[in-house]
Amino acid sequence: MELILDLIRFLGLIKNDQKKVFFKRKRRTTDKTLITFNRQFKLQPSKNEREVYIGLSLLLVVLVTFGLYYKVPEFTNYNYNRRNPIEKRNQQSDKIAYQFLMKADKNRWIENNLVGAYSEFKLAQAIYPNDENVNQLLIATLVALCEDDTKYCRELDIILTGSL
Questions:
Q1: Cα-based distances in Å from 107 to 112, 115, 148
Q2: What keywords were assigned to this record (predicted)?
Q3: Helix runs in the chain, H state only
Q4: Averaged over 92-115, what is the pLDDT?
Q5: Residue 89 falls within a domain, yes or no?
Q6: Position 92 in a domain
Q7: Which residue, 35, 53, 110, 134, is the most exposed by fewest CB within 10 angstroms?
Q8: Helix-helix angle 132-146:47-110, to 10 degrees
Q9: Please, are residues 58 and 50 in contact by the beta-carbon 8 Å criterion?
Q10: CB atoms within 10 A of CB 121
């Protein structure tokens, strides 16, 4: 038992001198003065938080910049490769439609169906507006139709004044 008491005394939990106080409490001041603490608090982030936000914002801007730098050319190549076959397909379908209309127009012209030939020449002109062959055949058809109906004469005048 003495061994345990010696160990407790060695650790400082019990002192040999019982008159010495092991723990002293601080006494309150007897004067009744109030301590004034006039600090004003503001709702604002601390400087450390601001620095963290600035750092994260800069990191985000740098990452977005590098991402755009590498992804924009890839996107333009993808868009070009996607758009190019679509344009070729549209040009091919326009060419096929133009050839069909020209063949049908000439057949109607030979059969003396001038109104049908005129409507198909207008469609062919809508596909290729600067084609000389279509414009000449359209004018020839309008000249032939102008003899029967004045409506076609007005359209012929519009085409002839527009081409000058």
A1: 9, 12, 21
A2: Membrane, Transmembrane, Transmembrane helix
A3: 2-11, 47-110, 114-127, 132-146, 150-163
A4: 86
A5: yes
A6: yes
A7: 35
A8: 50
A9: no
A10: 27
CB neighbours of residue 142 within 10 Å? 21
Is residue 15 assigned to a domain? no
Whether the predicted model's global pTM rises above the 0.70 cut: no
Supply the Cα-derived Rg of the chain in whole angstroms.
Answer: 49
Contact 138, 121 (CB under 8 A): yes
- And the tokens for 22? 């092991």
Give the tokens for residue 70.
């590498």
In this structure, which amino acid lies at residue 17? D
Residues in the chain: 164
CA gap 16, 6 in Å, rounded: 10
Q: How many structural domains does the chain have?
A: 1
Range of the domain at 153: 46-163
